[in-house]
Amino acid sequence: MTGKVALVTGAGSGIGRATALRFAEKGASVLVSDISEATGAETVKLIEDAGGKASFFKADVSDPAQVEAMVKSTVDTYGKLDYAVNNAGIGGEANTTADYSLEGWHKVIDINLHSVFYGLKYEIPAMLAGGGGAIVNVASILGLVGWAQAPAYVTAKHGVVGLTKAAAIEYAQAGIRINAVNPGFIETPLLTDAGIVPGSDLYAFIASKHAMNRLGTADEVGKMIVLLCSDDASFVTGVPFPVDGGYTAQ
User: pLDDT of 81-114, one tens digit each?
Assistant: First the structure.
């Protein structure tokens, strides 16, 4: 991927950081975006310390104006956009549907679904101007199956899968491939903040839901994302890829 340019949202930690590091390892220049300047700067430093090239852009992806500015900054900084990963997201509150707060619903939908639409809206024209590219939207196994007490998250991630398929069809002949990854439960700050930590009963319960009886790592998802962006996946578009240790196979 030497000479290529990648944009990764939510790249300050977890899957986003692992993906940004993987792109840089493959030779791409990376625009690291996150709402946190501190963690975003850490990712940039990790890339630069390993001999890669990266820069940071702070963005709240639920704001379309900031997403537009983020994409513009990528093109202004590196001259083009070859790969984009719409990864930023939150877990949201845990509650049954009838008791779910309106504020919580809108927050999850804004950050986990609307942001992906905003990303596509501004990334696609930038890629068309450069002759094509590849986009990966980060969904979840909960974009394929349900989960109690997560109605907003499940709805948003199902929406990401549908949006991915629609956009992939629209731009398949224009040189832009658009896919999704659907991770199982991955060891990231999103889970540790929810109390899903090694050694806990909750961790063991969640692990048992996967055929491999373990949680995945951010690096395992990042490798799939970068593979889907690469020329090795040149005939692949419009597909939600489970990276879930066999969760959805059962």
Answer: 999 999 999 999 999 999 999 999 999 999 999 9
171 noted as active-site residue: no
Active-site choice (153, 171, 203, 247): 153
**133 φ/ψ angles, rounded to the nearest 5 degrees:** 170, -165
User: What does the pLDDT look like over 162-191, one tens digit per residue?
Assistant: 999 999 999 999 999 999 999 999 998 878
Q: Could you identify the residue written with the tokens 């390993």?
A: 50
Q: Which contacts qualify for 141-144: CB closer than 8 Å, 24 or more apart? A: 141/182, 141/183, 141/184, 141/185, 141/242, 141/244, 141/247, 141/248, 143/180, 143/182, 143/240, 144/182, 144/240, 144/242, 144/248
